[in-house]
Amino acid sequence: MLELPLGIFTGWLEYIGQNPGEFAEMARQHMTMVLVGEFAAILVAVPAGIAATRNEKVGWLVMNLGAVSQTVPPLAVLALSFTALGLGYKPAVLALFLYALLPILKNTVAGIRDVDDAQKEAGRGMGMTELQRLRRIELPLAVPVVFAGIRTSTVLSIGVAYLGAFIGAGGLGQWVILGQQQFNTNILLAGAIPGALLVIALDRTFEWLEGRVTPAGVSATDTDGAAA
Known about the structure:
By secondary structure, the protein is mainly α. The protein has one domain: MetI-like (MetI-like fold), CATH 1.10.3720. It contains 9 helices and no strands. The longest helix has about 35 residues, at about 20-55. The chain is elongated.
């Protein structure tokens, strides 16, 4: 039976403790890249998704483009951003924005389309305008699916942000690269494990926000046709 040295479980914590300032700066860089790219994607993708549901052809294009986009490697997106903006923070944020955009866009379209026609007709019967139906019926019911897209894109963004170290954007990827270069597992884990913890923290944060804005009695299971 393979036995792992005890140090592998504590060595990465000791390394962080020996370099607290450097770790804090890299964690700040990593989180800033993720949050800026993610919130920019939300601001663009949700309105664009709503607009796509108002046009059948555009909606069909968005759904298929969203499916295809998941096969594009993160390095390809980063390379395009680097080509456009050069080295540093800006191309990394652009890459995160582009990579986060389509999951949110796709889920926004799916969530609104999945609202029961009977509920929409009930709104029409009450004399609601299209904008009122969107605001009072469709969007509240679509919230769980939209947030599923946001949570999925956040997890992807945290992973993609590690690649920012290759183009001078900083982040926790610097220690991952350094650990690989020096064959030092402690340094590698000191960069990798905090990223995993960040995934959990942001996922729980968005889960909490989803609970705050979702109407009572509505859950992700009410929208079976959507894809996260």
